[in-house]
Design brief:
globular, 5-stranded parallel beta sheet, 355 residues, 12% strand, Asp/Orn_carbamoyltranf_P-bd, Rossmann fold, urea cycle, transferase, 4-stranded parallel beta sheet
Length: 355
């Protein structure tokens, strides 16, 4: 049979149409959701709106298929991750270790007491050695420059498990939690009430890209870094969202959908006088039901944990408005979504979630 006859046959036409529909399944409304395979994730500043949306979509897909449909998805079978922890952790360690194993891979937990990195061996050499032994590295470090050096020298993806500048994997979990609760993200307002730190920085690097308005309330002298504020202002203008910086927590809470805070004082490191000054500086910043009284009627509360009473009282923390425990659980699904996205060409099977 000639190629012309085959091309004009009803069967060929049907198969061509079927293929076209199959392709459009992931392209309609998501044509630009680019793959991030092979990339590192040191900060969400480096990721576009579509790339962040794709990671969240993959995360929601894995959660649905594995948790709800009880599917076994060995997407990372035969792969290993080096988990380097200079700082202790509950959620980051457990979510990464159990998540990588659930996907069929082998997690290796390493502290500074277990390896030579930064002690008897420089970061450059350690990065090159680990690149030949595993497929991806997650590092929870004190200095962001450590991550930058690892990323510069490694030939495999690096994930920021927390640094002094950014905490991107926390924000992915936060936005998945908010999306699940409200059904979409665009047009919502998130109010950060507390200290400018790595978590607030990460919110600012992602919020505008998802159509989310941001309000930041800090005491004077505790604002996010100047460069982060400037980038947040640029992103807000680019994406048509609002960005407010204030020293009044009630102004920030007004008409907000999400109230969020984090630790103000490191009680293990700061001297007693420093603690007293910090608590005095933050008077009025504790999130209470009074804070929420000026927010949207359906406002919710988030906290990356661990929490101290000074930041939020029990009435809010253990209320039905608090999504802190679903938020903590989503750390697992979003780190899984990120690792799968960085290591594979996986396409979600569920319809794209609404942003």
């Amino acid at each position: 049979m000639s190629k012309l006859l085959i091309a004009n046959s009803p069967v060929f036409t049907f198969l061509k149409t079927l293929h076209s529909c199959s392709t459009r399944r992931f392209s309609v409304g998501a044509a630009s959701l680019s793959s991030v395979k092979g990339r590192s994730c040191l900060t969400l500043k480096d990721f576009s709106s579509d790339e962040i949306k794709r990671i969240l979509w993959v995360s929601a897909d894995l959660k649905h298929r594995i948790k709800h449909e009880k599917e076994y998805l060995p997407l990372l079978q035969g792969k290993s991750i080096a988990m380097i922890f200079e700082k202790r952790s509950t959620r980051t360690r457990m979510s990464t270790e159990t998540g990588f194993a659930l996907l069929g891979g082998h997690p290796c937990f390493l502290t500074t007491q277990d390896i030579h990195m930064g002690v008897n061996e420089n970061y450059k050499d350690s990065a090159r050695v680990l690149s030949g032994l595993c497929d991806i590295i997650l590092a929870r470090v004190y200095s962001h420059s450590t991550l930058e050096e690892l990323d510069k020298e490694a030939s495999i993806p690096i994930i920021n498990g927390l640094s002094d500048r950014y905490h991107p994997i926390q924000i992915l979990a936060d936005f998945l939690t908010v999306q699940e609760h409200y059904g979409s993200l665009s047009g919502l307002t998130v109010s950060w009430i507390g200290k400018g730190n790595m978590v607030s920085h990460s919110f600012l690097m992602a919020a505008a890209k998802l159509g989310v308005h941001m309000k930041i309330a800090t005491p004077k002298g505790y604002e996010p870094e100047k460069s982060v504020i400037e980038e947040a202002q640029r992103l807000s203008k680019q994406h048509g969202t609002q960005f407010v910086l204030t020293s009044d927590p009630m102004e920030a809470a007004c008409d907000s959908n999400v109230l969020v805070t984090d630790t103000w004082v490191d009680f293990e490191k700061e001297e007693e006088e420093d603690k007293k000054k910090r608590l005095k500086d933050f008077e009025g910043f504790q999130i209470t039901m009074q804070t929420g009284s000026v927010a949207k009627p359906d406002w919710i509360f988030l906290h990356c944990l661990p929490r101290k009473m000074e930041e939020v009282d029990d009435q809010v923390f253990y209320s039905s408005r608090s999504l802190i425990f679903p938020e903590a659980a989503n750390r697992k699904w979003t780190i899984m979504g990120l690792m799968v996205s960085l290591l594979t060409d996986y396409d979600p099977k569920i319809p794209m979630i609404k942003f």
